[in-house]
């Protein structure tokens, strides 16, 4: 991996916005981690997922209801990932480390691996957002061109159409393809994984085996392989589409900027916090339903600047950060509605599909 350096000598913007955020928590006597609003989500979503799973196995229902239940189960699992796993893996679910570690294992329950994801997301993506050549989130293979510095191919003319098909299989590819590639290669895109401890090796394999047991062996026993395969694919199509679209709306839209690095080291002219603001966008910030379901990931600017603060605080932080951006003459990218953000993503992918430099 080439060395990337940000101009953090003065970091005036981040110092100012951080002081304002610290004052908010002190004046209101609030903890930065989760509160009852976050814990209530876990109390609702986790039992909902378990109940739906059991009902799919032993319930008496028609095949149309089975399809709806599979969609609902997939959507519930995604909401658990957004609302529980994401905060926990960032260390913002609780002030107790062991609680964060335990709740972060919900990623393993969903089929992936928390250890690898933390390196991919917390370290690489949050540090080098939208930098082609390092950020694994915009390195989704040759069929998708997500920034102008990536190689163009004729098939990209149609990526704004077929990308949703790729999104729908993304979680299967993630859990049974890229997870194993990263594990055996000890590399995430261009970044090496320095060490995987014995405990993480154990968790990786035990989690994968248990996933096969609970998501394949047990359902096949109760339902038969045809009904299981149908439900399993519907489950992952739901998860893949929702996860992919939500994460794409944060960075791969028309308003955000991109950078690139090749083999040589690179110096980014701005401080890290300014880079994060320019490469990130919020969406549907006033839609409380969207905010609840996606675990505050529609407040991506707030999340990227303060990933160790729980998402339940992001609506309040957004007002502070927006004022700071105005003070420093920085853009505060946001789309008022979910629909506008999706349209922007589609337009950008269509634009990147044209043959131009």
UniProtKB/TrEMBL annotation:
Pfam families recorded for this chain? FA_desaturase (PF00487)
Which parts pass through the membrane? 38-57, 63-86, 98-117, 160-181, 202-222, 228-250
The record's GO molecular-function terms, alphabetically, read: oxidoreductase activity, acting on paired donors, with oxidation of a pair of donors resulting in the reduction of molecular oxygen to two molecules of water
Give an example GO biological process. Answer: lipid biosynthetic process
The alphabetical list of record keywords is: Membrane, Transmembrane, Transmembrane helix
Would you say which domain of life the source belongs to?
Answer: Bacteria
CDD domains given for it? Delta6-FADS-like
Domain Fatty acid desaturase per the UniProt entry, residue ranges? 62-335
Determine if Nucleotidyltransferase is one of this entry's keywords: no
Sorted alphabetically, the Gene Ontology cellular component annotations on this record are: membrane
Report the coiled-coil segments.
none
Q: What PANTHER family does the record tag this protein with?
A: DELTA(5) FATTY ACID DESATURASE C-RELATED, FATTY ACID DESATURASE 2
What protein name is recorded for this chain? Fatty acid desaturase
List the source organism: Niastella yeongjuensis
Provide the taxonomic classification: Bacteria, Pseudomonadati, Bacteroidota, Chitinophagia, Chitinophagales
């Amino acid at each position: 991996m080439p060395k990337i350096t940000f101009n953090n000598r003065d970091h005036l913007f981040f110092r100012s916005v951080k002081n304002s955020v610290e004052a908010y928590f002190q004046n209101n006597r609030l903890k930065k981690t989760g509160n009852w609003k976050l814990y209530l989500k876990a109390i609702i979503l986790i039992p909902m997922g378990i109940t739906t799973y059991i009902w799919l196995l032993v319930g008496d229902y028609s095949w149309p209801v089975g399809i709806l239940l599979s969609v609902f189960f997939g959507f519930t699992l995604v909401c658990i990932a957004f609302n529980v796993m994401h905060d926990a893996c960032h260390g913002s679910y609780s002030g107790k480390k062991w609680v964060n570690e335990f709740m972060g294992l919900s990623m393993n329950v969903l089929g992936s691996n928390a250890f690898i994801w933390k390196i991919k997301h917390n370290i690489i993506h949050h540090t080098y957002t939208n930098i082609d050549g390092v950020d694994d989130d915009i390195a989704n293979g040759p069929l998708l061109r997500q920034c102008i510095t990536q190689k163009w191919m004729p098939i990209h003319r149609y990526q704004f159409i077929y990308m949703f098909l790729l999104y729908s299989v993304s979680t299967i590819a993630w859990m049974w393809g890229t997870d194993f590639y990263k594990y055996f290669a000890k590399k995430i895109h261009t970044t090496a994984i320095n060490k995987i401890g014995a405990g993480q090796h154990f968790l990786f394999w035990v989690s994968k085996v248990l996933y096969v047991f609970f998501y394949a062996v047990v359902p096949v026993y109760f339902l038969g392989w045809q009904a299981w395969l149908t439900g399993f694919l519907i489950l992952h199509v739901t998860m893949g589409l929702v996860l992919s679209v939500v994460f794409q709306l944060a960075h791969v839209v028309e308003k955000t900027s991109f950078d690139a690095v090749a083999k040589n080291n690179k110096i980014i002219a701005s401080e890290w916090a300014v880079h994060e603001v320019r490469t990130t966008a919020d969406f549907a910030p006033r839609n409380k339903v969207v905010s609840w379901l996606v675990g505050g990931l529609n407040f991506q600017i707030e999340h990227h600047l303060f990933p160790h603060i729980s998402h339940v605080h992001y609506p309040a932080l957004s007002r502070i950060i927006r004022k700071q951006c105005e003070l420093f003459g920085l853009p505060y990218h946001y789309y008022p509605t979910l629909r506008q953000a999706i349209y922007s993503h589609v337009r950008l992918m269509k634009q990147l599909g044209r043959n131009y430099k």
